[in-house]
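Researcher: I'd like a structural prediction for the single chain below. Treat it as a standalone chain; there are no partners to consider.
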Amino acid sequence: MINLNKKFLIYGYGISGESIERYLKNKNCNYNIYDDFKKITNKKTINKDYLYNNINEYDYFIVSPSIKINKKHLLYKYKNKILIDLDFLSVELSKQKIIGVTGTEGKSSTCCYLKEILSKKYKTEIIGNFGNTILDKRDLVNYLSKVDILIIELSSYQLDKVKFLKLHYAIITNIFSDHLNYHDNIKEYINSKFRIQNLLYKNCNLYLSKKLFLKYQRNLKINKKRLVFTNNRIPIKKDLVDYIKELNLNSISKLVYNIDPQIKIDTSLVSNVLNYRNQLIYNLNNLKIYNDSKCTNLNNAIFKNNLINSSRKILILGGKFKKQLKNTKFNISNTLVLIFGNHTNLFIDHLNFINSNYYKFTNLNELVKFLNVNLKVNKYNYVLFSPGGESFDYYKNYVDRGKHFNKLIKKVLF
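Model: Treating it as a single chain, here is the predicted structure.
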């Protein structure tokens, strides 16, 4: 467990850095702040010279999860002292049941479904990579005393560094190739996901599909005694939204049952809670348009497009292209593909077009103008905006991108 009487350095003053400062301040801890790039007007801030000359006086280094601590990094030889904000939950949690959720795609949706279902009987909250933090609450002890179940969305970055967090339940939704600019290779990325099993209390379980286990069992150290295979029933192919929802609910049904057998999952009563994740934004005149701006993984975008059983469909890709495995190509069939942004050629290089065609656009505005004309001339039944790339080329985040797409569609079609 972390000793709060020791000295801390907050390395990086982003959202998590600011949050952890408020926590340390509330606990009257001894700490300083350092940031490589950000100018900070704070009495606790130190400069690079001070850090280099006095680095050994710090007992713990609290870093943003996205900072890669490689052999060239100043903190590499202090890796055993590195913490992230989630580690401090080990000091605060007591009676709560803790669920950890990781995977390449579907983490946020799975967290939301778990919260909606479990909240019918228990006080349930979501934190972590989901975007919520509780550490900086002034009356944290009182807040946590009212929480029965805490759901934590865990990224590969967080799992790469977290040391003290403990879980009662863990689930891996899926694994696609991702974050290869951070992880040195795909094996390292997969290993980071499976580190979630190391956070489990003794005799607690890891939930994942049998297919996922069989795929990686030879290459990873997986504790088979911990495993519970999720419901592998494949939904009947119907509406994209309902199909993905049912797929996600199947993956958590056994976990929910093991928490409380009296809680029943009624698919029809569970809402589709996340904006910009498989969100149906237009449904008129035999045309459905989905906003899936949250999709930043090309493999997942192609997977969803292939779920749509139609040859009259349009897939919109774009954004900041993520590094892919060498020579990787994804098959895309019977689809008109529209690609926007500065990385259009990178998307094209990783697609194998089968009875499909594509057009390139500088930005989303140009693309939607073309889309508007095309929908009037040709009879398409589906448009899937599932970019498969990061939003940071033109937007603050996927929400900003999703809002912009909705605004453009509303302007031309409503």
